[in-house]
Each structure stands twice: as C-alpha cells, then as structure tokens.
Amino acid sequence: MAVAHEAVKHVEWKRARVSKQRQVTIPLKFFEQAGIKDEVEIGLQGQSIVMRPVRDNVGSDHFADLILQDLIAEGFSGMELLEKFRERQADIRHAARGLLAEAQEAARNHKGTGDDQMKELFGDVMGG
C-alpha cells in the first residue's frame, strides 16, 4: 500500500482492521520493537493517531520523588520538609498549566507536517 503523504515516508506501515468495538490488533513486530507491555498512551496529531508504550516512572509520583530528593539534599526534614514539598508540588502544577497553554498556542499556530516534532517526541519508541 502506497502512502501519499510525504511526511510519513520514513515510517514502516502495516494495514490492520478496526473492529466494530474500535479495536485494532498491533502487529507483533511493532508491539515488540516499541516495548509495549500492558498499556499504551494514545495521542492525536493532526489526522494521525500516535501510540506509544506507557513509560515507567513518569508522572506525579516520579516528580514527587525528585522533589523530595532535592529537598532532602537541601537539608529539609520533618514538618518543614512537608511544607516545602507541598509548595514545590503546587509550583509544578502551575508550571504544567503554563506549559499546556503554551503548547496549545503553538499547536494552533503550527505550520508544516509535524514530522520533526513527532521524531523528537516519540523517536525513542519509533526507532528514530
């Protein structure tokens, strides 16, 4: 099957059926090469659905560990550690909201195929 869109010419393609329940079987080669275990993250980029394995140690628990590690290294302990931890967690939430707003604005103003951004974001799981 030829793919007309030039931006995806470096991607290996396989055809799959979509069930009535919207389920798709991932080809074994892709499943293994991507390192998928039991969950995936799915995103929409333009008209393309992007799927990648859920990464371990990502999310608020990972950030919590990093925050605590920094605070302990800075010498905080006891109730002062708890207070500083809560402050830094709130700062992260605020920063994340700002990053999300910036990303949404960038997406609205984006021109081009997005191929470079796709490689930057998912290159580690796409072999690129």
Task: Please tell me about this protein's structure.
This is SpoVT-AbrB domain-containing protein. It comes from Cohnella kolymensis. Residues 16-59 form the SpoVT-AbrB domain. By secondary structure, the chain is mainly α. The chain is 51% helix and 9% strand. The protein is built from four helices and two strands; from the N terminus they run αββααα. It has a two-stranded antiparallel sheet. The protein is elongated and about 55 Å long.
Task: Give the secondary structure arrangement, pairings included.
Elements: H1 28-34, E1 40-45, E2 48-53, H2 60-73, H3 78-109, H4 115-126
Antiparallel strand pairs: 1-2
> What gyration radius follows from the Cα positions, in whole Å?
20 Å
Oligomeric state as shown? single chain
- Give the overall average pLDDT: 81
The gross shape turns out to be elongated
Briefly note the structural class of the backbone.
Answer: mainly alpha
- Show unreliable segments: 1-6
Beta-strand portion reads 5-15%
Strand-and-helix sequence, N→C?
A: HEEHHH
The overall strand count is: 2
Biggest pleated sheet: 2 strands, antiparallel
Counting H and I runs of at least 4 residues, what is the number of helices?
Answer: 4
Amount of helix: 40-55%
Q: Separation of termini?
A: 22 Å
In which order are the strands of the major sheet placed? Answer: 1-2
